[in-house]
Amino acid sequence: MFQKLRTDLVKKLSSIKVLLVNADMIPADGEESFSDRESGDFGGIRELEKLGVKSIAFFTTTKNAVIDAVFRLGIDLIVQVVSTKAAFYSKLKSKHRVDDKEVAFIGGTLSDIPIIEKAGFSVAFPDAPLEVKAKSYYVAYGMGREAIKEVVGLIIKARSSGG
Question: What confidence category does residue 70 fall into, taking pLDDT thresholds of 50, 70 and 90?
Fold first, then answer.
């Protein structure tokens, strides 16, 4: 997928301990595309755990079928209906005893901007508003689940081979 990562990406991604995803930006078109048919994994999340990522957290502001599908995959933290994203972000950091620089966040709504501005590695979905993309460190190429797989792949590459 990635031959060699830019030095700045390696630096930012090497310290990631928590991956946080706004699931509101993922179309709920079934669980099938969420996992690798052979391993039951979702884009390498199990590999992230082996590399020292403490938590992969998905949240939504509404009841969401995507969260239900992720839950069945055994992801560490699933939160339905987050009313205040910034407060949720602070609680997540406290729970896992991490700093902002150790959090990767994938989002795409205007209300994600407070987290985007704090997270060590912020990623916008490609269909996010221009304001969100401008504040994010990285804009994913893939949409929805593919964006998450892309970021997981970046983190794995940075952590396992130094770029």
Answer: low
